[in-house]
Amino acid sequence: MQEKIKEIFEQQRAHSLILRNTSLKERKEKLKKLKILIQENEHLIFDALKKDLRKSEFEAALTEVYFVYAEIDFALKHLASWMKPKRVSASMSSLLTKNRIYYEPKGVSLIIAPWNYPFQLLIAPLISAIAAGNTAMLKPSELSSATAQLATKLINNHFENKEVACFEGDASLSETLLKLPFDHIFFTGSPKIGKIVMEAAAKHLSSVTLELGGKSPVIIAEDANLEKAAEKIVWGKFMNAGQTCIAPDYVLVSVNQETELLRLVSEKIDQLYFKKQLLDLSSYGKIISDTHYNRLKNLRDNAIAEGALLIKGGANSDENNTLEPTILSKVPLSSSLMQEEIFGPILPILAYSNLQEAINLVNQRAKPLALYIFSKSKALVENVIRQTSAGGTCVNDVVLHISNPNLPFGGIGNSGTGSCHGFYGFKAFSHERGVMFQSNPDFNKLAYPPYENKKGLLKWLKKIL
After folding, report:
1. Is 267 helix (H, G, I), strand (E, B) or coil?
2. Are strands 326-329 and 346-352 parallel, antiparallel or unpaired?
3. Which H helix or E strand runs over 86?
4. Does the pLDDT at position 250 exceed 80?
5. How confident is the model at residue 440 (pLDDT cuts 50, 70, 90)?
6. Strands 250-254 and 346-352
7. pTM value?
8. Which of 167, 252, 333, 405 has its CA 20 to 30 A from that of 142?
9. 3-state secondary structure 299-315
10. H/E element holding 250?
C-alpha cells in the first residue's frame, strides 16, 4: 500500500501541472460528472449511512447528499467569476501599473474526512479541490466503514488515480499519507488530531485547512422566545445523536428562566424524538463505536457523581450503541463534561446571574467553532459578538449558518484554521498570486541611483504618501 500511495502521489504531482491549465468548461464538466455519480448511487449512500450511524434517509439526504448537491450547484454557478483574475488598484508607489490577483491551484491536495458526516465531509472539500484545479487524495474514516467502502469504490471506479484517488485504512494509513509533501491538506476532525496533522504539514511547509470543533455554547438572553429557542436547540443538539461539530455543546440561561427552559427542552425532546413514550429509532441515530459510546456514558455518569442533576433521559442500550437525549443541570464547571467537547447526546444547561457572567464563562474556554445567541435585542447580540470569539455565529437559531455557501465556514484557534464552502473552499485550495503589469517601464527609474540630487523627490513623496 505504501508503494502504491507513493506511486499515485507522483502521478498526481505530474498531472497537477496539466490540471492547473484546465479551462472553466473542463472543471465544470468534472463537477457535473461528480453530481451525476452521486445521483445514480443515492440509494447506496443512504444505505451506507444507515449502517454506519443509523441515519434516516431524510436526515441523510438533508445533511449529507443534498448538502453536496447544493455545494456543486453553487460552484457551477459561480466558478467563472472565481477563476477570473480580480482587479485591484495601484498605489502611489506603483502608479501607471495594472494589478491583478490570479487564483492558481495549489497542486496535490490531501483530504482527511471524519466519521460523523462521512459522505458530506469527504465530498464537499473534493468539490472545492476540483473547482480550484487540483488533484486530490482522499482518506475517509475507517469508523464509518460502510460509507468509506462505498465512497472509495465510486471514486476509484469513475476517476483516474492521477486526478482523484481514495484510500481505505486506519490511522496508520493517515500517517503514511501525511509523510508526503502535499501542497495542501484539508482535515476535519478533533483538535487533538488536528495538531498532529499541522505538525506533519509543517515538515513540508504544506498549507492546511483544519476544521476542528470545540465546546460551542448557546447564550439565551432574558428577552428571547424561550419555547422557540428550546425547540431549535433540541433539534440542533440531537441531530445525528449529537455527533455534529457545530452542535450546541452547553446552554447558558438566566437563573430566572432555568426551570422553564428545562421544562421546555424536555417537552421538545418528547415531541421530536419519542413516539408513544419510546425513543423513535427511525429518527434518531446511534453512536458510531463502542469506544465513543462508553466515553459518553462515563462523561454522563461522572458528571452525576460530581453533583449534576439528571433532568431528562440518561437511558442507554449497549446492544445498539444508543444513548437517549440527556439533559443535565447544575453541572460543575470542573467536570469533564464541561472541560472537553461532548460530541454526543448530552446537553448541560447552566444558569447565569447576569449576561456578563455568561460571556466571561465562554471566554474562559478555548474559542469554539460556533456560538449561538438567542435574543430580540440587536444591541445585546452585537455586544455578545464583540466580546466573544468563535468560528461562526448564528443568532436565534443553531447549525443553519453552515448551509449558506456565501458565508465562510471555519474555526479559530482550537476550533480550526482556514475556511471552506463556496468561494472560501475554492480559495482554500488556491494560491492568491499577485501580478503587476508595468505600462510605463521608465517611470520607476525615479527610484534608481545616483541619489545625491533626489532629496527634493523624497520631500515630495513624504507629503503625498
Report:
1. helix
2. parallel
3. strand 86-88
4. yes
5. confident
6. parallel
7. 0.95
8. 405
9. HHHHHHHCCCEEEECCC
10. strand 250-254
Which residue in 81, 99, 83, 76 sits closest to 20, CA to CA? 83
For residues 276-285, average pLDDT: 95
- Indicate the pLDDT class of residue 441, thresholds 50, 70 and 90: confident
132 grid coordinates? 480550484
The verdict on whether 245 is a catalytic residue reads yes
Residues 328-353 as b/e (b if ≥16 CB within 10 A, e otherwise) read bbebeeebebbebbbbbbbbbbbbbe
Q: 435 has which bridge partners?
A: 100
Residue type present at position 271: Q
Residues 388-434 have pLDDT tens digits of 999 999 999 999 999 999 999 999 999 999 999 999 999 999 999 99
- What's the CATH number of domain 2-212+416-433, 3.40.50.300, 3.40.605.10, 3.30.2320.30, 3.30.160.60? 3.40.605.10
Q: Which pLDDT belongs to residue 449?
A: 87
Is-same-fold flag (2-212+416-433; 217-410)?
no
Query: Of these residues, 211, 231, 258, 324, which one is catalytic?
Result: 211
Q: Per-residue pLDDT averaged across 96-116, rounded?
A: 96
> Between β-strands 274-275 and 278-279, what pairing exists: parallel, antiparallel or unpaired?
antiparallel
Q: What is the DSSP pairing of strand 184-188 with strand 108-112?
A: parallel
Angle between helix 66-83 and helix 120-132 axes, rounded to 10 deg: 20
Active-site residue, 211 included: yes
Catalytic choice (64, 168, 245, 420): 245
**Cα→Cα distances 141→118, 223, 341, 402, Å:** 7, 43, 19, 21
Specify burial of residue 13 (Cβ count, 10 A radius: 0-12, 13-18, 19+). Answer: middle
Give the sign of the dihedral formed by CA 164, CA 12, CA 137, CA 150: positive
**CA-to-CA distance for 135 and 183, rounded, in angstroms?**
10
Distance of alpha carbon 320 from alpha carbon 314, whole angstroms: 15
CA 352, CA 328: separation in Å to the nearest integer?
Answer: 15
Q: How far apart are CA 165 and CA 160, in angstroms?
A: 7
**Cα gap 297→303, rounded to integer Å:** 10
Instruction: Give the model confidence (pLDDT) of 89-102 as tens digits.
Output: 998 778 789 999 99
Domain ranges of the chain: 2-212+416-433, 217-410
Share of the chain above pLDDT 90, in %: 92
Q: Residue 454: its pLDDT value, please?
A: 80
Instruction: Specify the pairing of strand 409-410 against strand 274-275.
Output: unpaired
H helix count then E strand count, the chain = 16, 22
CATH of 217-410, one of 3.40.50.300, 1.10.10.10, 3.40.309.10, 3.40.50.620: 3.40.309.10
- Bridge partner list, 372: 218, 394
At residue 223, the pLDDT reads 97
Side chain identity at residue 225, one-letter code? N
